[in-house]
Structures are given as structure tokens and as C-alpha cells.
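During the reporting period the student researcher (J.K.) took over the structure-prediction task from the postdoctoral fellow and processed the backlog of single-chain submissions. One of the processed entries is reproduced below for the supervisory committee.
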Amino acid sequence: MTPPETASAPGLWSAINRRAREAPRRIALSPGMHSPGRKLRYGELMDAIDRRVAELEDALGPGRHALGLLADNGIDWVLADLAGLRGGHVLTPLPGFFTDEQRAHVTEQARLSALITDQPQRLSAALPGNWTPRGRLGSLHLLARNEEAPHPAPVPAGVVKRTFTSGTTGSPRGIALDAQLPLTVAASIARAIDARPGDVHLCVMPLCVLLENVGGVYRSLLAGGALVVPRLDQVGLNGSSTVDPAPLARSLASHRAQVAIFVPAVLQALIEYLEHTGLRLPALRFAGVGGAPVPGTLLARARACGLPVFEGYGLTEAASVVSLNRPGACRAGSVGRPLDHLDVSIAPDGEILVGGLSGASEPGRQHAATSTLATGDLGHVDEQGFLFVHGRKCRVIVTAHGRNVSPEWVERMLQAQPSIARAAVVGHGHPHLGAVIQPAGQDSNGVAAAVEAVNAGLPDYARIATWALARRPFGLGTGELTASGEPRRDILEQAYATELFHPHRARELIVP
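J.K. obtained the following C-alpha cells:
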């Protein structure tokens, strides 16, 4: 039975139906040039979604089900997600880069009763419970759990998605979202970037990542765009940390992508490829980048290659994007202006507060209709309304003199220097701050002058007293970067402790 138009996310279905009437032959979903599957036009899209809604009901019975979705990028992932939304189910994307232990944790916490996947044997063997085949959704397999799922805190009424991010201790943390908040964010992004019907959006990030799901899939469909969803290997992604920029650049060029979203590590690999080959991507109109702090030098290199890159800032609890630089409203060093449905303010202690949210909650907490979110991030808003993020409250370095310093604040200033590619600031519990610095290019001669220039603009307690050149570029494989591209400061401090904090160095310093 097809849900009525008053079901979850009516605005999305209205937008799709409107495009079906106005431009039924316009491409809505494409698997890409080298991925299997056929394109879907707007005139076909609602029928395809409703067929999958009916297939879920036939296989699992009527009612609301807790669905897990683990599959490579592709049209069938998008249709499964949309069918879960339209049917009012609670859908939990399972990241491909999670370990089996992390997926098992998510399965229990989300009370999953069914799985949609392209790897049924591996998944059913790795997860707790007894899973049996229940048919297919397109090319994806549907598995159902035979016994009763565990009973953690119930999911609040109205929630249709639970998204899990890697916890700092390895256990994924889940956030429950209702149907409206992600679509409100998607519509705000569309207005911010002046999204146009027919815009080609190439999905570069895994669809299980909320930023791609909301800023890519939902935003494109609301605006009447053409969403290209090739397999991840077709855009050069392997696992969570390996990027081959050649197929990524080829995909962007061959599909004449006008919109794409990147994390900093993937953007850096693309820039290096463009710098080496001289290839340019003139069709690209908006390249969003987020998920981790973005060095100013990387943004400058991107623009030198002709990439229209715009940094943003977001949170899972806010259904991804909170603020965004955009054409005609971009300020260096900022993460842009807040989206138009949000109210961002700064608490007396400098913490960023986000108001105007609705329908987001952590599992086990009361599901409030509206709320103000204390983000845990420090920052300020300038007189033109641009938001600047200084760093995490929980990452604040407290020196031996009792001074509090956000390392990201100083790192951003260092990385804005042309001679510095990456920097990690450390020094918790020490009399002074130190930095591990990766120079831009092979020449490190300008690093000392760059550090001196940055120190001139910092209060005395936040200045870099000692620094060491990185022995090799920061990398995921060495354990010096997180999967989102942030420096592992504890690892780097341990590796460079002698250069930065040896007692004989401390004696040479005059520390305020």
C-alpha cells in the first residue's frame, strides 16, 4: 500500500511530483558512466520509490520497522533510503568503513529488525542475531531478524533516521532525526548555493555520510537536479582513507559535474592531481568542503586550480550543515554565514550555540520539538554575520601556567601562511606551546618567518615557542590523521616530544 501524501517528508514528494509533471524526461538519478544500472527520470522516480515501499511491506509486514542499510553508492542505495523515508520506517545507514564490531554495536543500539545490503552473507555472519533472506529491493538483498531485537531506549515518534558517527573511543554514537530537519537543511543549502534544476551533482562521499545524504541526495532532488551516484571505486575511494585522484578527476570531468562535496583529505588529493596534470574542471560551479578544519593554503591552492571551493561547518545533531560560505558571501578564515533556518549565537564562554533546530535528539533523551544546541565548539560571529570556529572546548590545551588555548585556532593561523601546509599544535600541561609543521613543498626555509609572523598576531600565552619539521607528511596510514583529516595531536606530541619539550629546550625559553 502506497503511503498518502501526508506521510513522512511530504515536501520532498511534492517536489518530485512537480518535476515529474513539468519535466518528466529530466534525469533524476544516474549510476554514472561505468557503473551498472539504468538512469531514472523524474517521471519514473515516484513509481520506483513506491514499488520499494510495497516490497518492504510484502517482505516484513505492515507497520514501522527499524532498517539497517549497508551498500556501496548507487541508485539502489538512494531508492532504499527514500523508501524508508516514504514508508515512515526508521532507517540507519551502516558505514562501509565501520568495523564488524562497530556495526554490531549499531545493530544492537538501533534495534535493527531488517537489513538492506549488497553483502548479505558477510553481514549476517558478522552481526548478532539470526538473519534470514526476505527477498530483494532492486539489486540489494533484504534480511530479517528472526528473534526479538534488544530493548534500548525507544526511538521517539516521528524519527525516521538514525545516523551513527565514529565515537572518540571507537563506539559509534547515534543521533535520531525526524523527517523534516534533514529536508529543511537540504532546502536551505539549495537556496544558499542557488541550486538550479538540471544541476549535475556527483556523489563523491559515501551516501551513508549525512553530509552527502542531505547536501547531495535530498538537496538535489528538492531542486530538480540530476544526481550521479557511481560506485565509490569509480570516484577513487577505497575504504575510509585511500583516495585515487585520477578516477575522481575523470568522473568530475566526464559527467560535467556542477556541484560536489568533499572532505579536506579528498580535496587535497584532487588538488595535487590537478596541479600535476594541468587538468581543469570548468563545469564545476560549487565545491563544498567540510567535515574537518580546512587549511587556508589548501583553499588558496584550490582556487589557483580554478576550483570554486567553499568551506562550511556542520554537526550531526543539526542534520549536517550549520553554516556555509557561498558565491557572493565568502570570507577567508570563516565557515560562512548560518543557513537561513538557523539562529547561531555565542555563549559567554565562547561556545557556539545553534538555535532553530527541530526533531533532533540523542538516543534516550527527550525528543524536543525545538531546541538550542550547545555545540561544544568555540568561536565568534563577526559584524557581517560570518561564523569563525576556533576549536573544540574539549580539546582546549591548558598550559602549565593555567592558560587555555584552542589548538585549532593557532593551527588555522599557521596554515594560512603560504610556507606551511599543515600544523599540529600541542602542549597540554607544558609551560609553552609547540607545533609540528609540515612545510608547503620541499622548501622549509620560510617556516621560521611564518611562525614569527603568526606569533606577532597572538597573545603571549598562545604563541608557538618551539616547533619541529614533520619527518614525513601527516597521513592516515601513519596514524597521525583521523579519518576526517584532523591531526592526532596525542600521537604527534609523543613522536616529537624531544624536539618540542625536552628540558634543555624549556630552559632556553622565556615563557610569560
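The committee noted the following: The first strand starts at residue 27 and ends at 30.
J.K. will present the remaining backlog at the next meeting.
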